[in-house]
UniProtKB/TrEMBL annotation:
It is a multi-pass membrane protein. Keywords: Membrane, Mitochondrion, Mitochondrion inner membrane, Repeat, Transmembrane, Transmembrane helix, Transport. It comes from Macrostomum lignano. It catalyses: heptanedioate(in) + 2-oxoglutarate(out) = heptanedioate(out) + 2-oxoglutarate(in); hexanedioate(in) + 2-oxoglutarate(out) = hexanedioate(out) + 2-oxoglutarate(in); citrate(in) + 2-oxoglutarate(out) = citrate(out) + 2-oxoglutarate(in); glutarate(in) + 2-oxoglutarate(out) = glutarate(out) + 2-oxoglutarate(in). Pfam families: Mito_carr. Transports dicarboxylates across the inner membranes of mitochondria by a counter-exchange mechanism. Can transport 2-oxoadipate (2-oxohexanedioate), 2-oxoglutarate, adipate (hexanedioate), glutarate, and to a lesser extent, pimelate (heptanedioate), 2-oxopimelate (2-oxoheptanedioate), 2-aminoadipate (2-aminohexanedioate), oxaloacetate, and citrate. GO terms for cellular component: mitochondrial inner membrane. It comes from the Eukaryota. Belongs to the mitochondrial carrier (TC 2.A.29) family. Gene3D superfamilies: Mitochondrial carrier domain (1.50.40.10). This is Mitochondrial 2-oxodicarboxylate carrier. Solcar repeats lie at residues 12-96, 103-192, 202-283. It is found in: Mitochondrion inner membrane.
Amino acid sequence: MASEKKLPSAATMAAINFASGGFAGFVEVCIMHPVDLVKTRYQVYPDTNASIVTCFRDMYRAEGFLSYYKGILPPLLAETPKRAVKFFTFEEYKRLFKALPISSALVYSGAGFMSGFTEAFVINPFERVKVLLQSQKQQYALQDSTWSTVRKIVRTDGLGLRGLNLGLTATIGRHAVFNCFYFGIYFTGLEATQASALPGRLDIARKFLIGFSAGTLASCINIPFDVAKSRIQGPQGKTKYRACFQTIGLVYREEGIIRLGPGGAIMLLVFEYTSAYLTSRIM
């Protein structure tokens, strides 16, 4: 009789989640960063009337191909700790919420909300630098480096809520709301469709579709916080946008109220299959 395989220890699973989350984040950033950059440009410069295609074309003509990757270093540096925090804390909060007499949908949503709240403290300084770099419209080779931007922020305004952590409240709102709906919709959708056993490629398509839907809906719901974060952290933040809800109200009064689903689907699929692969290699 074959001996039963031992389950990985808690420390091993934490390491697997860390590695899988980091790799998932790296892949997602590399694929989706140009879209994230255009989204930030729209949010920071609200008078932009060009279409997305025109924006990409004009950036290429005026700033060069590398302009699509402006500000990519901060998110790449942040992805391993960020995704590690996201997935590790989600699992831990999920364990705590499961002890409560609530539905599985509320378990996933509550754990997602708290994981996003925690994640925001890790990612906010990187977001502050990324938004400033993405806001610059000169040629890639002529713009400030990541490290000079960090030094300039710290030298002028310090490490606190007026400096490197400017926009923390909006970042907390963005990540908490996004993760709440993102994880809630994704895992509830998986449970609802689990009964239908599908072959490999169709199962990947099922998960991608659910992840795409979860990422799209979560992004649509959390967009006010995302816009507020970009406005506060952008170059005009000091002169016009001061606080999270003040900014949301101002944007609503003046203007009325795109990296949506694809990034969410890519990240969850890469995380899930990388985690499964690493677990199978250990067991």
